[in-house]
Design a protein that fits this description.
Strand content: 15-25%
Number of strands: 18
Number of helices: 15
Strand order of the largest sheet: 13-12-1-5-3-17-18
CATH superfamily of the largest domain: nicotinate phosphoribosyltransferase
Number of domains: 2
Radius of gyration: 24 Å
CATH topology of the largest domain: nicotinate phosphoribosyltransferase
Largest sheet: 7 strands, antiparallel
Shape: elongated
Amino acid sequence: MRGFHVATDDEIKARRTTDIYFVRTRRVLEAKGKDRVNAVAEVTSGRIPDSRDWGVLCGVEEVARLLEGCPVDVYSMPEGSLFRPEDAHGVRAPVMLIEGAYGEFCEYETPLLGFICQESGVATRAAGVKMAAGRRPVVAFGARRMHPALAPALDRAAYIGGLDGVSTLSGAEAIEGEPMGTMPHALIIVFGDQVEAWRAFDEVMPLDVPRVALVDTYFDEKVEAIKAAEALGGRLAAVRLDTPGSRRGDFASIVREVRWELDLRGYEGVGIFVSGGLDEEAVRVLGEAGAGGFGVGTYVSGAPSVDFALDIVEVEGRPVAKRGKLGGKKQVWRCPGCLVDVVVPSGKPSPSCPRCGGGTEAMLKPLVKGGEIVGELPTPGEIRDRVLEQLGRLGAEP
């Protein structure tokens, strides 16, 4: 009996999370001697949520782990690649190819898509938030809105998409970093007095933990902010405003008031960290009002999935495709300067960039060969750096 309703690594690898129709498909293929038919399947996306024309590919490492030991070849865009549903000429652009006996990999379709659909959705929204925040730090606060078993995956995806840190212990382990956070209202309520709670936090926490005082529990935010600054003095790194939507009124005006009152009393070095129902527009507006950091939760962790699909495009070397898809194995060629993609049949020469006329590079790179992982699996930090560099070329300044 399960204590929690989650699948283990072994169960996922054993295809226990697949859809039943793939199990039945494999049985039919085996019964009719078709399970060894060689097929090429490509993963392409539909529209990107939030009306974006780009997304951030995430979950590639887990796909590699999923298909490790399965006698297939996998080619993929590197994790953290920006992708678009279509190339410069309107051709669907695959982010991944799988080649091998279809009976070997058909039952992996469900978990494979599950990895990249959800995690790419989270990474894409995180990238949008980071673009809105610019150089101001953003921490992923969304674990409490999702199933706890997903915390490491969602935090990792948020970090890869550009957020600066995560709040959960398991998420921090997944990104090879340290968890980041402040204090809850519960701490202050248990003490019954804001100043006593802030001072207790200051006394107990090690010096490497930033002193960020939550200042909206009982009184007006600017009143509590002044109290916190006077109580902790130079040890106070920032105040945090977490007023819920039902109480906040004009949040930007509150931020401006707190900033003014702190500065007026000589506390220019005390930052303002805001959280509570934030999205990209709120991050942009509050940043302009004087917020210096953000905790973003449900908007990122609950991001809509990217609608990836896996379709067979070649059988025994013969191009095939269902309606609405283009047959044949393909390669995606990208201009490294302007990030424009061109899709051509596999084996054809690399095209020039239709925008600048420059050279292009192949984006679908070997990830798994005959069941062995051969592609690079960068650290989360290296992937995040790649994402931020690409966002910079889109005109952002993260």
